[in-house]
Amino acid sequence: MSLRTAALRRSPILCTTVATLALGACGGDEAPAGEPASPVTPEAAAEAAATITAEDLYEKISVLAADSMRGRDTPSPELDEVAEWIAADFAALGLRPGAGDGYIQRYSLRRFAVDEAATSLTLSSGAALAWGTDVTALGVPREGAATGPVVTVSGTGEAEAAFAELPTDAQVFVFTGPEMEATRTTSWAGRTEALYAAGAAQVFLVSTQDDAQWSRTAARAAGGSRVVGDLDPARTVALNVRAAAVRDALGGAGVDVDALQSRHGDALEMAVVEGLTLDSEVALSTLQDDTAPNVVGILEGSDPTLRDEYVIYSAHMDHVGVRPNAEGGDSIFNGADDDASGTATIMEVAEAMASLDPAPRRSMVFLLVSGEEKGLLGSAYYADHPTVPVDAMVANLNADMVGRNWPDTIVAIGKEHSDLGETLNRVNVAHPEIGMTAIDDIWPDERFYFRSDHFNFARKGVPILFFFNGTHEDYHRASDEVDKIDTEKTARIGQLLFYLGLEVSDTDARPQWNPDSYAEIVEGPGR
Prior knowledge:
- By secondary structure, this protein is α/β, with parallel strands linked by helices.
- It has 15 helices and 17 strands.
- The strands form 2 sheets. Strands 1, 2, 8, 11, 12, 13, 14, 15, 16 and 17 form a 10-stranded mixed beta sheet that branches. Strands 3-10-5-6-7-9-4 form a 7-stranded mixed beta sheet.
- Helix 2 (about 55-65) packs across helix 14 and helix 10 crosses helix 14 (about 485-505).
C-alpha cells in the first residue's frame, strides 16, 4: 500500500465518549444527580482527537524507521537515541517524568547461552539426550547438576495437590499435547515455576515440532537468551525436548508417549517411572552484559480521587536490528509497522490527551518499551518494577502493528476477557465519524493474546486490549518500510484509542475482568 495523506474523515461533532453523555444531550444539560460529569466536553475531545493526523504519524514513523536507526535492536545505540527522542517529546508535551527524576527507565540486560560442552543429560538406562539435537531451551534454563527419578505429567487441571507429591530432584517430562505446541513455553510458564518450587531438578516440555520447526527452534536457542536483572532460579524456563527423543529414551521403561500426549484436556496426572533416573547437568555461559531503556511519561488526572488510578497506553519501540545475510541485499530491518506504527500512535495519543484542559479524570501512563522482540523483556521489567502501583492500573491499551492491511478495520484482542470489550463497542458506536471498526480476535489459534507487551500487564491482573492489524508479507523483513504504512488508517486508530482511553478515564467504575478469564490468565496454571 502506498502512503495515503488524504485529510482525515470529519463529520459534525457528536456526543463523544459514553462518559460525556453524563453531561446530558449535546446541548450541555446538567449531569444527573450523583453522577460526576466528565471534565472533558465533547467539543474539547473532538478538537484534541483531530490533532492525531496522518501527516504527524508519517513524520514520527519516518524518524523511528529511518535507516539511521538501524532497526532499533535491543540493546543498541540507535535504540537509546530513539528513547531520548521520545523522552524529549514527552517533556515538550508537559508530561511528568515517569521513571523517577527522568523519563527513561533502564533495566539490566544480559544474555546467557548453554555451555554445550559442560552440559549432559543421561538416563540410568544408558540413553542420552543430546543438547541441540534432542533438547534445547528458549530462555535461560536452570543451571546445576542433579540425579533424580523420571516423572511424567500429563493432562490439565489443578496442579498444586499433584505437585506437592513430587519426589526430590525429580526430572519431570510434561506432555502438553500438540494442541499447545505454539504456546507451550508461555502457557506453561507458571507451572514450570511451580514444579521447580516443588523440588524438580529439571522440567522438560515435550515438543511435537517437525524437523524443520525444531531446526529453527534449536538455531534460535543457540544464540542465547536475554534476561533482565539477576538470574532468578524461580523463573527459569523449562527445557524443550523432542517427542521422538523421549519415545526412544523412555519407551523401554514402558512410557507410552503418544498416549500421554493425547491426554490434553483430561485431568492432570503425575506418575513416577519406576526404576529410571536421569542425571542432568546444565551449565551456562554469559555472552553479554548491558542495559536497555523504557520511556515513561505521565499525564496527571484532574479528579482529586481518580487521579491516583492510571490508564496505561503502551507500544514497543524496538525492532530486530541489522541482519547482514538478509535476502534481497537490504540488511536493515526498519520495522515501520512493527512497531514504529504503534509507537508513533501512542505518541500522538499522548499529545492529544496533553492538549485537554482540564485533563481527563484518571491519570495516564504513556509507556514505550524495548526488548519486545527479545521476549517482552522491557514490559516484563516495567510490570515487575512499575513506577505507579500495579493495583492502581485500571487498564492497558497496547498498540503493536497498526499501520497495514484493511483500511477500516482493526483487531482488538482480549475483548472477551473483560468489560473493556463492551466499552470499546460503545465507543465505536458513538464515533462513526472515525470510520474504524474494532473487531474480535480472528486468529485465536495463533494465541496472539500471549505474544505482545500487554500480556505482562494481564498476568498482573490489569484488564487489557491489544490493537493489532495482523502480519503481512513484510513482517520481520527488511521490506517493512515507511512508505508502505497507511498513516491515514493509523490516525483513525489513534483517534479510536484516544476516545477509548478518555472513556475509561472518565467513568467512575474501573474495568472488570470476566471471572473465567481472570481465573485462566491471572490465577491460571501455577500463577
